[in-house]
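User: Predict structure, ligand adenosine-5'-diphosphate.
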Amino acid sequence: MSEKTFIILMGAPGAGKGTQAKLLQADFNLPQVSTGDLFRFNLKNETELGKLAKSYMDKGELVPDDVTVSMVEQRLAEGDCAGGAILDGFPRSAAQAEALDNLLDKMNSRVAVVPFVRVEQEILVARLLKRAELEGRADDNEETIRTRMRVYHESTAPLLDYYSAKGLVVEIDGDRPVEVVQAELKQIVESKN
Ligand code: ADP
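Assistant: Predicted complex:
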């Protein structure tokens, strides 16, 4: 085990990665690094990065890899990531996964574990539509949700094979109460620590 602990939470949109990552932060004293949250922060503050990301996010498409990777690189260079991080929503493409490997190499580190929160597609869509009502997130409408699901299956799901080949993937049934998923996730991370 390297000094730094990098955990990649994988799962389709709506699987609960963000919720679980937030809960894990406290348990392991690692920051949650969510590319979706970072983009939304930039959007809200109308930064150049936010303006660039907006057109992709509104459609449910991926923001270009080079933009996303350099944002993550900057974030991981911040002091609170000295011990590692819980990555949520990144990597989302093969190019991002390779870029992450190179980044971690430079830090003499590597990915510790890739918990995969599995939830059936119909349940995911229902959850996202409900979130749309509750939170009013701009990209939680039916058409964008469909695009995000397609992008997930085409670009992100293949990463499970990439990390499985490295023996890093541990699957969790995400269709259970938040605290049950949380407890299992905590055990998985502890066993890899
Ligand atoms: P979801 O609930 O769909 O997983 P996120 O909050 O993680 O949503 O991301 C929202 C949007 O932000 C994505 O649809 C995409 O446009 C952009 N985004 C987030 N992470 C990435 C990434 N790693 N690469 C490219 N675009 C991203």
